[in-house]
Amino acid sequence: MSDQLRWKRVLLKLSGEALMGEQQFGIDPAVVERVAREIAEAVALGAQFGIVVGGGNIFRGVSLAAKGGNRVTGDHMGMLATVMNSLTLADALNSLGVQARVLSAVPVPSICETFTQRGAERYMEDGDVILFAGGTGNPFFSTDSGAALRAAEMQCNAFLKGTQVDGVYDCDPKFNPDAMRYDTLTPGEVLEKNLKVMDATAIALARDNAIPVVVFSIHTSGALVNVLRGQGLFTVVSD
């Protein structure tokens, strides 16, 4: 079945906010279950998954710093938020019969395993879904950068970024109905046009490792499997 897929081994990046649903904070179990079912469908087709979930639905380190708090402390709290989100999604996947493992860059051995590249590679070769928690394990780096790093380490074919909209636009389509969606962009164009795809460090990591960034809507039912097949609406950022 994997011969139906345009990209087989992928890193899926989800924002923490993607798990909130219509709530203002926290986790919506119905949304988590829907996302887990789409991942399970893709796994059944032969896709191999690494997943990074942000922590913005629980805590953002920069928000503490903006109020005069310590940025390092804030980022550490944000890393723990990503562990909580990863545990939630892993639990939903396991309940569907998909073996999912949480590997954290920040050691929390009583809760989940600590990330090593060799261990993650072994699990992924076995067909397990790996949730990479804890960012890079360092403050001042976004979860986008952490996801790009893991995509490079795991030699992924693509970096899939599930967002609120179905690709990259020249301006916010929520506020401008005439916004133009790009089918393709180069990393240089993203940086030159200051398009808010992800931070510059993540774009540079993906570019330097020849990993295409594929931006699509995680809220569109069936979009994940369609994207893996090269179908539907999405934007590819690649040289």
Structural class: alpha/beta
Query: Shape, please?
Result: globular
Helix content: 25-40%
What is the CATH-assigned architecture? 3-Layer(aba) Sandwich
Question: What's the Cα radius of gyration?
Answer: 17 Å
Report on the biggest sheet.
9 strands, mixed
CATH topology tier name: Carbamate kinase
The span between the termini is 28 Å
The main sheet orders its strands as 4-3-5-2-1-6-10-11-9
Q: Element order, helices and strands?
A: EHEHHEEHEHEEEEHHEHE
Tally of contiguous helical segments? 8
What top-tier CATH class fits best?
Alpha Beta
Strand content: 15-25%
Detail the poorly predicted runs. none
Q: Could you say how many structural domains there are in total? A: 1
Number of strands: 11
The overall pLDDT average reads: 93
What's the CATH superfamily, by name?
Answer: Acetylglutamate kinase-like
Pathway: Pyrimidine metabolism; CTP biosynthesis via de novo pathway; UDP from UMP (UMPK route): step 1/1
GO molecular function: ATP binding; UMP kinase activity
Protein name: Uridylate kinase
Family: Belongs to the UMP kinase family.
